[in-house]
């Protein structure tokens, strides 16, 4: 079996899932805010819109980086950066899971936990050169 084949496969799949999740959430968010303004909501959400759209964009960029950087694992320097990147995102997703217990619903919380564990698994496979 070729070196890093499992890591590349998991990286591309996980990156694609992150991009799809961010685009889907962004679509639902924009749909909800536009319906709220169409129905005459009086809450001013311009400050919250910028922060939320920035977070959605950053999740999309993280997904793209996960997918693209998985193809450069033969370089030792990039491999170490990618390993740290995977661990950092994995820890961030697990912290997000523990903060959001009971607030987002079981399906979304399970998705956050699952993606955090998969990022740790991806880091493990990169370290073991699989």
Provide a descriptive summary of the structure in words.
The longest helix has 34 residues, at 5-38. The termini are close together. Helices cover 80% and strands 0% of the residues. It has helices spanning 5-38, 46-69, 76-99, 106-127. The chain is built from four helices and no strands. Helix 1 packs antiparallel against helix 4. With 130 residues, the chain is mainly α. It has one domain (5-127).
- The shape, in one word, is elongated
Gap from first CA to last CA: 9 Å
Number of helices: 4
* Whole-number tally of structural domains: 1
Structural class: mainly alpha
Q: What value does the average pLDDT take?
A: 86
Strand fraction band?
A: under 5%
Helix content: over 70%
Q: Whole-number radius of gyration?
A: 17 Å
Topology as H/E string?
Answer: HHHH
> Largest sheet at a glance?
none
Question: What's the total number of strands?
Answer: 0
Low-pLDDT segments: none
